[in-house]
Design brief:
The chain is an alpha+beta fold and 1026 residues long. It contains 35 helices and 31 strands. Helix 24 runs antiparallel to helix 26 and helix 29 packs across helix 33 (972-984). The protein starts with 7 loop residues before the first helix and ends with a strand. It binds zinc ion. Residues 1-2, 102, 106, 200, 203 line the site of zinc ion.
């Protein structure tokens, strides 16, 4: 995987707490308290403790150590969270575009000294209960994190990770497979043309088909032109074939050394055990080196620079004539200065976030472009941070105007500063971010500190967030112009500034294809006949190696018997507020209250359905009650942790042709702000502002742009949604609310010159959706606060009672299901049933300007509660690990691919960033043949079960507990039932479901491909080409 930078505030958003149990202060010997007993100077298993610090804000104790012999650095964060995390990161500073750190990241995961089997990393996914496993290549470091809730599993995974990064095999064949190689297009035909293949080669071609991504890369390369940031750490596709296997091995030897390593552990497992294992299995075999990987400071320019780049045209752009991007980027200070980083990242939010920020007013509201460029804001992922500001989706003629506006806005900020209330809103946001608990806190911490620590900044200082908040308040008090002075210094007077524009070039893809062809010919020309024969033989060898059944027995594994036989019950209580049913769930939420309301769409006229996603975007952003949209945004920031409305398509758990349709309201707040939060919802129910066409246009443009940008990133989701469209009524609705149909619909709206008709649909939709007669609510809060929350909710329901209307559903068949399955009577969910639904086969192709494909085939099978559902879930996992991964990724060169069983009863095959199109469909079919042949072992089945269970048992945050029941009516009892069926799945079941559901002609299936122009498909009349 290849990762580009995120801003500190974006990272802060993920930095939220995850206490699984009770407040740590109540426990007599919590992990954090035990860790406080370490003493600086204490020596443990080859390490020396350097610092021990309590971080009460985050309920953890940080212990900093160094390894005596090698100088490896170590940070342990002890906290009462069972989702323990490990990560090791190396400073990787490439000086060319070959993508060497990225290819190395992939290749070390292809087998190691102790675990020589191919691809131990992917194999461990099936031998473990891991909650997260991955590897990232950033611009200047490479990180390998994993997390798990099981102590034995932690040791197993740690052993595999240590061996992989320090003692990888780095075989030539691994390099060909993961990096690049020349190979016959058809490896078994020596006369077929030679082409470039390789996982990273294709991954990067796919990554740079995303124009925003391409722009971000150019911007970084050009703003820091003098050292490692001037190259593409992920690999420039056409430079990748310049990398040799020897260079790769050399880069490993110099960079993946303990002296260049930073280890991080998190959670409630004891530190000593980690240190002992790391020392024994890895570090004891090394001596200290000088890795010499420091990144020097970027020399400052004496005058600003301008540059221009081109990209491919975007067929989905809301306005084809407006496809230019322009940003101004400023080099800021060193990120190891923690307080400066904190200040600048806050300053950045004040400048650009939300409709009250000066840049939003100056750049977004005049509708010069569709949205900010995705690079805007503070970026602390490089040694010296940067700030960028600018637009995407703008006309070329507006470039000069935008530059002027940016300069003028900076002048205005220096002159006027910021309102105090906005600063307070931002500090409130930080408070919420520290209190809200996510399930991946360890991972958030690891990535939060990674960049600063990578350049020898102090990670512990970075964790003391409230120290920074206090210092910030103090500084601002002493100098009210503090922020304005920073703007003066970093923006107005900064000569290290880059203005970079990007415009589409009609011939861009053609030029790229030509450049690739030239590169290919250049390589081929140097080949003698014997070289070509050698390439052919190597291609066959690789194919043979990939096709071989593999012995993974060297790898450690959990057993199915290590899985908990029963689930933990989440108690909920049912009640009512103003006649609306409410589910109450008491949780250790750390002082936060989480509110949800599900409102069904059953009475909504069909012609309004496509507008519902736009309604969801607009309702929280156009003003309400006495607040205009700016004040509304301000109040939401000041009083809540966010308020959102989203569409929901919920398939029934017992019948494929039944589903619930609706929108989900979601918000959170600190306990003290409950009345304010409900007041905001009341205002949106009672008097939303749907009168500002210009405001709506801004929102429409931003949504259309966001959808268009999302396709190259989540193309497989769009392909799956489309392929499932004609298989069930729920699938059809999912496609119109969130699939390609919705993308095209929003594009059409964005192109309308007059939005008054669209504006008029919003109040009509509101009448149908915000109707207490169609609602149910859920509250998650602490036991102490629950009755208060219930009272506030009651008031809210009284406030909005005037919206209650009895309306007739537009579909004839409405089935009621009790909300409380044990009660048998009482409040219910209203589902739509289409008993006469006829699924049909359809093959759809979307021609898109990408160099790679997203391929999916979906098959209609059975709903969640059916006896075969568990077998199909295990089968999907087993086919992915034992067959499809090999065919689609290893042999086919796609970034990913596999099969999954969905709650809607649809079994889906998919590929991600795939150089092949229709060939992948035959790989799916071969997968079915493989399953039907029954050539899998008990070990294969057990591994697939472990993998299914690691998803089933993935941690759930206190804010999300009880949601399966609230939304889908799936109770703990049903979950336990499913669990027992999963345990019981055996060889016979799998063989049986593979034949009965997946075989050709057995069930209705749908196919969809998103990808570049395709002649085979065009000529084939069985395809519908869009
Ligand atoms: Zn990658």
């Amino acid at each position: 995987m290849f990762r580009q930078g995120k801003t500190v505030l974006q990272k802060l958003r993920y930095l939220s707490l995850n206490r699984q149990q009770h407040a740590w202060r109540l426990k007599s010997s919590s992990a954090a308290e035990r860790a406080l007993q370490y003493q600086p100077g204490q020596r443990i298993h080859g390490f020396t403790v350097k610092e021990v610090a309590a971080v009460p804000d985050l309920f953890l104790t940080a212990v900093k150590l160094t390894h005596d012999k090698t100088g490896a650095q170590y940070l342990h964060t002890a906290r009462d969270d069972s989702n323990n995390l490990f990560s090791v990161q190396f400073r990787t500073t490439p000086m060319d575009n070959t993508g060497v750190p990225h290819i190395l990241e992939h290749t070390v995961l292809c087998g190691s000294e102790k675990y020589p089997c191919r691809d131990p990393f992917f194999k461990m996914l099936n031998r473990s209960l891991t909650t997260f496993m991955n590897a990232f290549t950033a611009s200047d470091y490479t990180m390998y994190p994993f997390s798990t809730q099981n102590g034995k599993d932690f040791q197993n995974l740690l052993s595999v990770y240590l061996d992989a990064v320090f003692f990888p095999c780095l075989r030539e064949q691994d390099f060909w497979q993961e990096g690049w190689r020349l190979e016959n297009e058809n490896p078994t035909d020596p006369d077929s043309p030679l082409v470039f293949k390789g996982v990273v080669f294709n991954e990067m071609k796919g990554a740079f088909s995303d124009n925003e991504r391409l722009y971000a890369q150019h911007l970084q390369n050009k703003l820091y032109p003098d050292h490692t940031y001037s190259v593409v750490s992920g690999g420039e596709p056409l430079a990748i074939p310049d990398l040799s296997w020897e260079q790769l091995k050399h880069f490993h030897a110099t960079h993946y050394h303990p002296s260049n390593a930073r280890f991080f552990t998190y959670g409630d497992l004891p530190l000593e055990q980690h240190l002992k294992q790391i020392e024994e299995e890895a570090l004891s075999r090394f001596d200290r080196t000088d890795p010499n990987t420091q990144v020097p400071s970027q020399p400052h320019w004496s005058s600003p620079r301008e540059d221009h780049v081109t990209c491919g045209p975007d067929a989905l752009a809301p306005d084809p004539a407006k496809q230019n991007t322009l940003c101004m980027s400023y080099l800021l200070g060193d990120i190891t200065d923690t307080f400066e980083g904190f200040t600048l990242s806050l300053l950045s939010s004040l400048m650009i976030s939300g409709p009250n920020s000066p840049f939003y007013k100056a750049l977004i509201e005049p509708k010069i472009g569709t949205d900010f460029s995705s690079v805007v804001g503070y970026d602390g992922s490089t040694k010296e941070a940067s700030f960028s500001i600018g637009l995407q989706g703008m006309a070329e003629d507006d470039i000069e105007r935008v530059k002027q506006i940016i300069n003028q806005t900076i002048e205005d900020i220096i002159m006027n500063g910021f309102e105090e209330e906005r600063i307070e809103a931002l500090l409130h946001k930080i408070e919420i971010q520290m209190k809200h608990q996510s399930t991946s806190f360890g991972l958030s911490l690891a990535s939060y500190i990674a960049s600063c620590w990578n350049h020898d900044g102090d990670p512990v200082e970075l964790l003391q967030i409230s120290d920074s908040v206090a210092k910030f308040r103090q500084t601002l008090k002493e100098n009210p112009r503090f922020l304005q002075d920073k703007v003066q210094h970093y923006f107005k007077e900064n000569t290290h500034r880059l203005t970079l524009s990007m415009s589409p070039d009609e011939a861009y893809l053609e030029k790229q294809a030509k450049a690739e062809e030239e590169k290919l010919q250049q390589k081929i020309q140097t080949l003698s006949d014997s070289h070509k024969k050698e390439i052919y033989d190597k291609g066959l060898e690789l194919l043979a190696a990939q096709s071989q059944t593999q012995d993974a027995s060297c790898l450690p594994a959990l057993k199915v018997s290590d899985i908990e036989p029963t689930i933990n019950i989440t108690p909920v209580e049912m009640g009512a507020a103003g006649g609306v049913p409410v589910q109450y769930c008491e949780q250790p939420t750390n002082g936060m209250v989480y509110f949800r309301a599900m409102c069904n769409l059953n009475t909504l006229p069909e012609d309004l359905r496509l507008y519902v996603p736009l309604f969801c975007t607009a309702i929280t952003k156009m003003g309400c009650g006495g607040l205009d949209y700016r004040q509304q945004a301000q109040q939401m920031e000041l009083r809540t942790g966010g308020m959102s409305v989203s569409t929901q398509v919920i398939p029934d758990s017992t019948q494929l042709d039944m589903y619930e349709q609706g929108v989900l309201l979601f918000s959170s707040c600190l306990e003290r702000n409950l009345p304010h939060m409900f007041q905001l919802w009341s205002d949106m129910f009672n008097s939303p502002h749907f009168d500002d066409e210009e405001r709506l246009r801004v929102l429409v443009m931003m949504s259309a742009q966001e959808l268009a940008n999302g396709i190259s990133y989540s193309g497989h989701m769009y392909a799956m949604t489309r392929a499932g469209r004609n298989l069930s009524p729920a699938g059809e609705l999912a496609e119109s609310l969130g699939g390609m149909e919705q993308v095209k619909f929003m594009k059409r709206i964005a192109e309308m010159s007059d939005l008054s008709q669209v504006l008029r649909t919003l109040p009509r939709i509101k009448k149908h959706l915000f109707n207490p007669d169609n609602m149910r609510c859920a509250v998650n809060a602490t036991p102490q606060k629950m009755s208060d929350a219930a009272g506030q909710l009651d008031n809210f329901m009284k406030d909005v009672a005037g919206n209650r209307r009895e309306r007739k559903p537009v579909r004839p068949n409405i089935i009621e299901r009790p909300l409380d399955p044990l009660a048998g009577s009482g409040p219910s969910r209203k589902l739509i049933s289409e008993p006469n639904y006829q699924p049909c086969q359809m093959k759809t192709f979307f021609a898109l300007p990408f160099p790679v494909n997203f391929v999916s085939e979906c098959i209609r099978t059975v709903p969640f509660s059916h006896d075969d559902y568990a077998s199909l879930s295990v089968l999907a996992r087993m086919m992915t690990a034992k067959f499809l991964h090999g065919e689609i990724r290893e042999k086919g060169g796609a970034y990913g691919g596999g099969a999954k069983m969905g709650g809607g009863g649809v079994f889906s095959f998919y590929s991600y960033r795939d150089p092949n199109s229709v060939q992948t469909l035959s790989a799916f079919r071969k997968g079915v043949d493989w399953a039907k042949s029954g050539q899998f072992t008990q070990q294969d089945i057990d591994e697939a079960k472990l993998s299914v269970f690691s998803a089933v048992d993935s941690p759930v945050a206190p804010s999300d507990k009880g949601m399966g029941r609230f939304l889908s009516g799936i109770t703990d009892e049903m979950k336990q039932n499913y669990r027992e069926k999963l345990f019981a799945v055996d060889h016979k079941h799998l063989l049986d479901v593979a034949g009965r559901y997946l075989g050709v002609g057995q069930r209705t299936c749908g196919v969809a491909i998103l990808g570049p122009e395709n002649d085979t498909i065009k000529k084939d009349p069985s395809w519908i080409v869009k």
